[in-house]
Records
---
Amino acid sequence: MDRPGIVVMGGSGRMGRMLCEVIAASDAARLVGVTEAPGHPWAGHDLGEMLGGATNGVPVTDDPISVVANAQAVIDFTTPAATLAMSDILKGSAAAHVIGTTGLSVDDIARLDRAASRTTIVRAGNMSLGVNLLTQLVRQVAAALDEDYDIEVIEGHHRHKVDAPSGTALMLGEAAAAGRGVALDAVADRGRDGMTGARTRGAIGFHAIRGGDIIGEHDVLFAADGERITLRHVASDRSVFARGALKAALWAQGKNPGAYDMLDVLGLR
């Protein structure tokens, strides 16, 4: 079987560049194109040149329809609006849509779930193996402990991140809520300032740190009288997310349309 051709959305960004590097170095996939927003200075040029090297035959385009026509997967760590637009383009296409975009609203996710009736979609707030294992552990610990244990999710990212809490923090909060058999929206506490009163029993708190070049740090704290349990994941290299996304794109080849996540990819479902 030929190596599947992969398109990267937003190739000039931090994750876009890392994805291009990881795919280019892979012997299991081919980088066949990069998309950018209309009017972006990279559009219409060769990716290799835009990265400061020799031409490599990978086009950068602001016309996604043309570049995804012959692709087997699109990897997308962009913005909610761009992700939804690509989802519309891919409806009924043979190309899988691998989504690492964060900041998606409930309505956005519902729209992607509807698109999954015609497209193979793999979506996750975090695509690293470690974080997905952590998610499973959080669910198990939350199920084992009662509400005497307060749950707090603390996340840290670089100063340029525009959404909070992070997609990973929300994944972890969802896992904790599922372990307790409750809906996260019903128990989430996303910020405290001023005279807030005592902590609500059973709440799941979120705290976002933004600074410097932090790639990704996530702690889930279970705190009771007399003891604390902390589950932690630290990403020190952005390539862990790119490698996970590539693994998802390869796994999705030949799969039926549907909404999948990294637990499916990793066989942890």
Note: The chain is about 35% helix and 25% strand.
---
Amino acid sequence: MSTTIATRDKAPRRRGDVIFAGIARGAGIAILVALAGVALFLTLEGFPALGASGAALDGAANFLDYVWPLVFGTLLAAILALLIATPLAIGVALVIAFYTPRRISGVVGYMIDLLAAVPSVVYGLWGIAFLGPQLKPLYQWLEEYLGFLPFFAGPASSTGRTILTASIVLAIMVLPIITAISREIFTQTPQLHMEAAMALGATRWEMIKLSVFPYARSGMVSATMLGLGRALGETMAVAMVLSASGVVTFNLISSTNPSTIAANIALNFPEATGLKVNALIASGLVLFVITFAVNFAARAIVARTERERS
């Protein structure tokens, strides 16, 4: 037996395997080098802004006061988008995978995937020209009947360009990402597990709850985190839809809205000079760190789920 193992270990590798391994290793190293280069550039260029104040930071006393409202707006818009998109995306993925005929599910899945190909500027134009005006009566209703809540305190925006409108646009943008990944994970559930549940008398929903969800939990978390990463970094659609004033507020229907880091950079970078450029780059570094932390947390959650399942 030991002779056989030694012979296998010493067997020459095929040229195709060596080439593929080299390409894969080179691609991994290139990605790490690119990430390191981006982090180094953002750190070096953004460092001068850490000690700035006044006009370079839009009147803020220090960099923390400048970037905190932007971080708040970025997280608020992304979390609202996930709260809207995740249940809808998982529901659509379940319908496509288990409830519709194969021909229809293929067409629906293709249409959902097409949403990912729509440019951000188109979503922004749609949000300004159609969605915002259509939501104005809803915002007025929310102010009138639910104005005692801080989220709907008003006054309701007369244009519909609010943080809630921007979040709905973001939700539609991340919907195909979460749906596509969840659908693929659902369809990879072992057939024997589903058939065993059905054989024991489970309904289709009970089968999904008992067999599909436990198997697909880590994939659903990964899909949600990828959607969160897209929502955190989205620029043009938010910059076009949101009427931002750089404040910290939980009011979702007012014309006074927090801005996001990406939208603030896109709107102010063309005219920025001196330390203002460094301040925008430093805020980009903050967004880079937030995105990295989100992805790191997602990997940790997925790894823990895999360990618990095994």
Note: The two ends are 30 Å apart (CA to CA).
---
Amino acid sequence: MDSTRPAIKTRNLTRKFGDFSAVDNISFEISKGEIFGFLGANGAGKTTAIRMLIGLLTPTSGEASVAGFDVFTEAEAIKNRIGYMSQKFSLYADLTVWENIRLYGGIYGLPMETVKAKADDLLKTLQLSDARDKRIGSLPLGWKQKLAFSVAVLHEPDIVFLDEPTGGVDPITRRQFWEQIYEVTEGGTTVFVTTHYMDEAEYCDRVSIMVDGVIEALDTPSGLKEEFKADNIEEVFIELARGADRSQN
């Protein structure tokens, strides 16, 4: 991907369901290698936005490009250039660790020799070599999470989308997961991560905060705290949510 071109660019991107605007005219640009946090409460529109960007949901209006491809006309090309991990981790519980890696390696079009080599490396890195032939369903939640992320970037995508990937895991495991994120961005991969954990905003290069389908704030974590005279991003979010409530009343 051209490093001078935004990894992701949206302009007035909108998705309606009937008269309800789940995502309402959002605009932003994300640079190559950036960790972009897409924050908001449950129901704020984060998942709808991410589904449009990865080519699973057609926008109602607006513009968007991902890895240089148009979301309206080149959705299939986008899918070949991205990785994706959801809160449910996207792994098959009844398959073994190796079978999951082999399956996704095939989906991503990697040669079997490459899949085998990458599997050996990632299992060693994750200290999961002894679990190679264990079924995913038998693994602790933290292991599933780390493995799912590794599988999502197995094909070295330009961009990896993480949709609330740390839901339900303990703070230590969440921190370890973010260490994995840092490692892939060092190689130039762009990370787009949705979360409702406000403390995770501190790990991002920039953060947007969504309230009721609208991006109410977008800046670096330090910039947001300075603008709202807050000690942390949670305080910023609470202030924005209160403002939205007041405007509706």
Note: The mean pLDDT is 91.
